[in-house]
Design goal:
alpha+beta; nine-stranded antiparallel beta sheet; 13% helix; globular; disordered N terminus
C-alpha cells in the first residue's frame, strides 16, 4: 500500500494552526465598544438538536457611558432552508460606564433548531447598535452542526511509470501542491528543477484539483462547494467528508492501484459525492502509465428528492514546470477528445534545463457520463482555461457567483495570456442560467482521464501529440476497470465479491460473514452489492436477507442496484 502518512501530518498541523490563529485575535472593536471573542468559527461546533451558548464580554473603551438598545441577528446560512432562527442571544446589557465591562449570552443552534444528522454549516453575524456615538459592530459567525467533524485523510496512488498522485477523502487531488506526489516525474530519473535564476518546481504538475458544484438557490444567491485552494473542511465552500463512510481507502488489483474517497457532501448538505481513482500498474502497463482515470458519483443527499439549479464540473489547477519562476503556463483545448490542457513555458533565459519545458503537458478529458440506466453520454457542456489572477487571487479562492457565471458558456475557450491558470471541465449545466437538475433516486456517474507527458525532444506540436496519445490510451485502458463505465453494482444487490454478472451464491455469503466478523476486515469493492437490502449501511439485516435469498423457496426479490 502506497501510503503518504506525512500528508496527514501536514493537514493536522494546518488545522491546528488555523485554530491557533483564530484564538489569537481576542477582541473586535469599533468606536467605543469592544467585543470578545472577536468571532465564532472553527473549531467550534455542536451536535444536531443541541444548543450551544457563548458568553460575550462587552467593554466600553470610550470616554462616555454607552447603551446597546438593539442587537440584530443576520442569518446568512449557506443552506437557506437549514432552520431559520438558529442565531439567538440573551438579555441585552444595561448601560456600560467608561472602562467597565459586562456580559451577554450568544445562542447558536438556538433551541436545537437544526436537527439533521447531515453536516450543516451556518454563517451569520450578530450586529450591535450602540450609542451615543451611533456606531455598530458585527460579530462574524461560522458554525457547524454535525455529529462529528470529519477531516480529510490523504493517500497516494502511483502509476507503473512511477508517477504519484495525492488523493483525499474530500475528492481532492494534489493536496494543494503538497509536493512530491503531484502527478509529476520527480520520482523518475532524471528530473530537475527548472530555470537558471528562478528555479521552477518540477515535482509538481497537478497542484490542486477537485469536483466543483455550484447551486443557484435564487436570484443573487449562489452556494459553491469544492476542495481546492481555500476549500478545506472548515471553509464556507469546503466539501465535508462523511463518517463513517464504507469502502473508503486504498485498494489494488493486477492492473492498478486505486483509491476510493468514501462519501463527502456539498456545504449545503444537499448533494453527496464519491470519487474513485485508478492508476495503471503492473508489468502489462509499461506503455500505458502516464495517466489515471477516475469515476465521480453524484447523487442527492436525500435520495428521494431531486436537487435543481446545479452547475457540475471538475477544476484542475495545473502548475506545469516552467522556468519563469512564476508558475506560468500556456492553455489549450482539443474538442474532439473533450480535452482541456496546459503546457509549460520556456523563457528566453540563457540557462539550459534538463528538459524543454515547452514540451511538458498536462490535461484532463471527459471519457463519458451516464445515469443508472447506463445510457452513455459524451457531450461536455463546456471546457475552459482561466487565469488565477482574475478568479482566484483576488478573494483567496473561487467566488461562487463568479464561478457560476464562468460555467455558463458552452463550448471551449482559453485564456490567451501566459499566466498562472486553472482548467475547468463543465459536465452538467442547464439552459437560460437554470442549471442542471439531479434527479431523485438516481446517480450521475462521470468518468474522466488525466494525463501528463514529458517528451525528451521535438516541437510543441509533437509534445501536444504525445499528450493526445496518452489520453487515447486512457480511454482504451478504462475498459480494464470492471466498473467502467456503468457503476459497480449490476442488476440486483448481493454480489458481495463483485464477480461481474453472477447470481449471489455461498461465496458471497461467506465473504459478507467475514466482513462482519474478521479483523482486519476484507475489502468490500462495491458497497452497493454488500448493502443487500439497500438500507445505506452494511449490517446484520443484509446478512439475514442474503441467507433468506439462498435458503428459502421461492426466493425473495433482491433490491435493484442504485446506479
Amino acid at each position: 500500500m502506497n501510503k503518504s502518512v506525512f500528508l496527514i501530518i501536514v493537514v493536522v498541523l494546518t488545522a491546528c494552526q488555523m485554530a491557533f490563529a483564530a484564538s489569537t485575535k481576542p477582541v473586535e472593536q469599533n468606536g467605543w465598544l469592544e467585543v470578545s471573542p472577536s468571532s465564532i468559527g472553527y473549531p467550534e461546533y455542536t451536535k444536531p438538536a443541541v444548543e450551544k451558548q457563548y458568553t460575550l464580554m462587552l467593554k466600553n473603551v470610550g470616554p462616555l457611558t454607552i447603551t446597546i438598545p438593539v442587537v440584530t441577528p443576520f442569518e446568512d446560512s449557506a443552506k437557506p432552508s437549514a432552520a431559520p432562527g438558529w442565531l439567538g442571544y440573551g438579555t441585552l446589557p444595561g448601560d456600560i460606564l467608561p472602562g467597565d465591562s459586562t456580559t451577554m449570552v450568544l445562542e447558536l443552534n438556538d433551541g436545537g433548531v437544526v436537527m439533521s444528522s447531515a453536516p450543516t454549516q451556518l454563517f451569520g453575524r450578530l450586529r450591535f447598535y450602540f450609542g451615543p456615538s451611533g456606531d455598530s459592530l458585527d460579530l462574524p459567525i461560522s458554525f457547524i452542526v454535525a455529529d462529528t467533524i470529519v477531516f480529510p485523510v490523504w493517500d497516494t496512488v502511483t502509476t507503473q511509470c512511477g508517477i504519484p498522485l495525492t488523493v483525499g477523502t474530500n475528492g481532492n487531488l494534489g493536496a494543494h501542491g503538497i509536493g512530491g506526489a503531484n502527478f509529476g516525474f520527480w520520482q523518475t530519473s532524471p528530473e530537475c528543477d527548472t530555470g537558471e535564476n528562478n528555479p521552477g518546481n518540477a515535482d509538481i504538475y497537478l497542484a490542486d484539483a477537485s469536483p466543483v458544484i455550484v447551486r443557484r438557490a435564487g436570484v443573487g444567491n449562489y452556494i459553491g462547494s469544492w476542495s481546492v485552494h481555500s476549500g478545506d473542511v472548515t471553509s464556507p465552500n469546503g466539501f465535508k467528508p462523511l463518517f463513517p463512510s464504507p469502502n473508503r481507502g486504498y485498494f489494488s488489483g493486477a492492473r492498478w492501484q486505486g483509491y476510493n474517497s468514501g462519501i463527502f457532501c456539498t456545504t449545503d448538505s444537499l448533494v453527496k459525492l464519491e470519487r474513485t481513482v485508478w492508476a495503471p500498474n503492473g508489468a502489462t502497463n509499461n506503455d500505458s502509465c502516464k495517466f489515471v482515470i477516475m469515476r465521480t458519483r453524484i447523487f442527492p443527499y436525500s435520495i428521494g428528492m431531486s436537487v435543481s439549479g446545479l452547475a457540475i464540473g471538475d477544476v484542475f489547477d495545473w502548475d506545469i514546470p516552467s522556468d519563469s519562476g512564476e508558475l506560468l503556463n500556456i492553455a489549450g483545448t482539443d474538442p474532439t477528445r473533450r480535452l482541456v490542457y496546459m503546457r509549460g513555458f520556456d523563457s528566453a533565459d540563457p540557462g539550459t534545463d534538463c528538459y524543454n519545458n515547452s514540451l511538458r503537458y498536462g490535461g484532463a478529458a471527459l471519457i463519458k457520463m451516464h445515469m443508472k440506466d447506463c445510457v452513455g453520454n459524451t457531450t461536455l457542456f463546456a471546457g475552459y482555461n482561466a487565469a488565477n489572477d482574475s478568479f482566484v487571487y483576488p478573494a483567496g479562492g473561487f467566488v461562487p457567483q463568479q464561478l457560476w457565471e464562468n460555467m455558463q458558456s458552452t463550448g471551449y475557450s482559453n485564456e490567451s495570456r501566459i499566466a498562472d491558470l486553472h482548467s475547468m471541465l463543465v459536465y452538467k449545466n442547464g439552459a437560460a442560467n437554470a442549471g442542471f437538475t439531479l434527479p431523485a433516486n438516481d446517480t450521475l456517474n462521470i468518468w474522466t482521464a488525466i494525463a501528463v507527458v514529458r517528451p525528451t525532444g521535438g516541437t510543441t506540436a509533437q509534445g501536444l501529440d504525445s499528450l493526445r496519445k496518452e489520453i487515447d490510451k486512457a480511454f482504451a485502458w478504462s475498459n480494464n476497470v470492471a466498473t467502467c463505465c456503468c457503476g459497480c453494482c449490476e442488476l440486483t444487490r448481493g454480489n458481495v465479491i463483485s464477480i461481474p454478472w453472477t447470481t449471489p451464491n455461498l461465496s458471497d455469503l461467506s465473504y459478507l460473514i467475514a466482513y462482519m466478523t474478521v479483523t482486519p476486515r476484507p475489502v468490500i469493492y462495491c458497497f452497493a452489492e454488500a448493502d443487500v437490502n439497500g438500507s445505506g449501511d452494511i449490517d446484520i439485516s443484509d446478512l439475514s436477507l442474503l441467507i433468506t435469498f439462498l435458503t428459502v423457496t421461492p426466493r425473495p426479490t433482491l433490491p435493484p442496484c442504485p446506479f
